[in-house]
Design goal:
Elements (H helix, E strand, L loop, with lengths): L1 H7 L2 H7 L4 H15 L4 E3 L4 E3 L1 H28 L4 E7 L8 H11 L3 E7 L2 H10 L4 E5 L8 E8 L1 E6 L19 E5 L5 H13 L5 E5 L3 H9 L5 E4 L10 E4 L7 E8 L6 H13 L7
Parallel strand pairs: 3-4, 3-5, 8-9
Antiparallel strand pairs: 1-2, 5-12, 6-12, 7-10, 7-11
Length: 291
């Protein structure tokens, strides 16, 4: 009301703009002056003018209204998923499974949303998403984790990974049985149950139970440890793209593509900004994983 009257300097015109009659407008201005203890208008029967105090207050009032407008627009943007902040977990292997393209697609379509990436082991991501500490995550798993919504994002073969000087390193293809006497680097079941169980199952299908050296960390570090001679490993094919010197990837006879990565998020309600990321993942994910 104050700003409108200050712009019009006429009670009748100001009242019309405010869709009200003149008496309540006059009363409201008097109450405002009483509250702040300052006279804002000089007025008589013919003229209305701002006092110096009123002129100063007008500048501040316009700034306040602008902030209110900006706040309302920000709220609308958040509701549309065009503003806000989401925190997303990932494993190092996702760098070779399309994560950069998914992030680029999301940023291009939701430029006002801040995307914070947090590297963590798959099992830890599942726990954090369930608790709400992470909005979403990209996890290494052959099965969709329970207790969260999920989408398969990658399917690939497992390959044998050996040091460059290993007797099998120059093989074009091998049967998994050829590794039965090797020491396998493997995540413990507590650290990564899905990976651990998959490696054990592949070896069991090949007719042996592997000797293992337990490891806790990221799969890229495991490949680096193979290159350093700590053992051999079964590694998803995409990780070959990391190009770690000293590690050789060898196709395994009869190995078939299978799910290796899922995008997970907490069950509904899904924040609007996160819905935009779900769209980005669905748009970019591996072609053979599409619905």
């Amino acid at each position: 009301m104050f700003v409108t009257l200050a712009e019009e300097l006429h009670y009748g015109r100001a009242a019309q703009r405010l869709f009200m009659t003149q008496p309540p407008l006059s009363k409201a201005i008097q109450q405002l002056e009483a509250i702040i203890g300052l006279r804002l208008f000089e007025r008589d029967s013919k003229h209305v003018a701002l006092t110096p105090a009123g002129d100063l207050l007008l500048e501040k009032a316009r700034e306040a209204l602008l902030h209110v407008h900006d706040t309302v627009e920000l709220g609308k943007a958040v509701a549309r998923g065009m503003s806000g902040r989401i925190t997303v977990g990932f494993t190092g292997a996702m760098l070779y499974r399309g994560l950069p393209k998914m992030v680029d697609w999301f940023k291009a379509n939701s430029p006002g949303v801040e995307l914070a990436l947090h590297e963590a082991m798959s099992q830890r991501q599942v726990e954090l998403v369930r608790s709400g500490s992470l909005d979403a995550g990209f996890v290494n798993s052959p099965l969709a984790p329970s207790g969260v919504d999920s989408m398969m994002v990658f399917r690939e073969r497992f390959m044998a990974c050996v040091p460059i000087g290993h007797k099998l390193a120059k093989s074009a293809r091998i049967k998994l049985q050829a590794m039965r006497h090797e020491t396998f680097l493997s995540f413990s079941r507590a650290t990564s149950p899905a990976y651990h169980d998959r490696v054990m199952a592949l070896c069991a299908d090949a007719g042996f139970h592997p000797a293992t050296r337990q490891f806790e960390g990221q799969i890229l570090t495991m490949v680096a440890m193979v290159a350093a001679g700590f053992g051999v490993a079964l590694i998803p094919e995409s990780v070959k793209g990391a190009g770690i010197n000293g590690a050789v990837f060898i196709p395994i006879v009869a190995s078939v593509p299978q799910p290796t990565a899922f995008f997970i998020w907490k069950a509904a309600p899904v924040p609007p900004a996160l819905s935009g990321l779900v769209k980005a993942v669905r748009a970019i994910r591996s072609a053979d994983c599409r619905d």
